[in-house]
């Protein structure tokens, strides 16, 4: 079979006339130009653009890793993390070499501000607390969040991923739901979930008083899942639970995907994992739509909206004074509800898990915390004012958040050209803010930075560092600081108080200390604790 030529096409188009040379040029020329254009765009995206940006930064003295086509440092990071995960670590709090081995080495070699490669994109690591604070403060709107929108849609968009006016509007609407006054009204829900957890633990005793072993990582995921289902959806608690179970599966599937995300269109590949993620996403959205539409009708009819996050959000949306086209739509509310789970459930269970592990390693602090709790509440249910006054418990939680920050790193991107620490960054540069490295920096926290010393927080957060500088960012900083931080601290205090009132705990011989960074800072092999009834 002969190859088609431009002439033949010319003949067919021109009804028998001999084809002229321009038709042949058109036939070959247009596709060739299209292919060249696509190749140029790909080269610009994967090679020329990144090299230009990196060159501009290196020209100002920034050092870092060399670009390796096409995935940058991602494969090396995956390899180093896998290697670190293969070995447990001694039961101490110097966890950075295990949790972020490559990041630690890069910063050691190239300094606190240095270049790494996230796939084809240069990313500057900024491990200087003052610079991190400036970036997160975002005074002049020079930074935006670095989110992968395609993945975001499968997990949750919502407040955490928006920018500009949309973010400001959603933050205004959501803020009232997290006011202390509203949280106070959620306390009975926190308390009920904690009591149910204690009842579950008691049922494991099966009539004996003897010690028993539990994986508290699982227990706290159940607890915080219950708390967020109850506080987000109130009476629709059981449907909420189903939604959050699906969300949990979704999170596991996303983690499997993330290492391939630099491959263009990877999410559209017909893999089993991709198919299940899309199915889950549809089911979650369908269930949420049902709950939201029912509740929206009730709010519009002036019925009680309820004290749960959904009701408060719908009420605040209706009272916002915004014209109806600027209020949150059902789609918007769906994304915010999905986000509550991701932002609020896992982070708090991580905090509680490491708190029990650390208090098992440091029984003297467990004892001090119990004394404080018993003198504040005896065996009664903890109340809002009492919880707000706890000093030792707060110091302990802060020290755990410092050593084991649930969100290990934060990221941003320059939106406009900007100077940071004497370096001019063009627009579009990714920034990685390694909270865990800053929290473990001996120059900032002193030689004992890797030790558990809650007393460093005795005079408050601002006096906790050696240098008196702000270097404690477990909830972020600036306008995008965690909207749920008071919610999380209240929930963690309530759970810890109830546990201290009822049980003494220590590490099980089967426990292996193995923190690792998944979406948040997980215990790789669970957290087996032995509990003894008091
Ligand atoms: C110990 C528990 C928690 C930790 C450590 C934590 C940590 C964080 C951090 C570091 C950020 C800032 C992210 C950034 O700047 O890129 C953030 C934002 C956020 N958190 Fe939390 N969080 C916790 C609990 C919660 C809870 C309980 C909720 C809700 C029920 C929540 C909802 C959010 C939301 C909606 C945002 C986005 C705020 C915005 O962009 O305006 N978080 N969280």
From TrEMBL:
The keyword Oxidoreductase applies. InterPro entries: Cyt_P450 (IPR001128), Cyt_P450_CS (IPR017972), Cyt_P450_E_grp-I (IPR002401), Cyt_P450_sf (IPR036396), Cytochrome_P450_Monooxygen (IPR050665). Keywords: Heme, Iron, Membrane, Metal-binding, Monooxygenase, Oxidoreductase, Transmembrane, Transmembrane helix. It is found in: Membrane. PROSITE patterns: CYTOCHROME_P450 (PS00086). Heme binds at residue 482. One of its GO terms (biological process) is brassinosteroid metabolic process. It is a single-pass membrane protein. The keyword Transmembrane applies. It comes from the Eukaryota. Its cofactor is heme. GO terms for cellular component: membrane. Gene3D superfamilies: Cytochrome P450. One of its GO terms (molecular function) is monooxygenase activity. Belongs to the cytochrome P450 family. PANTHER family: CYTOCHROME P450 FAMILY MEMBER, OS01G0627800 PROTEIN. This is Cytochrome P450. It comes from Oryza glaberrima (African rice). The gene is LOC127786177.
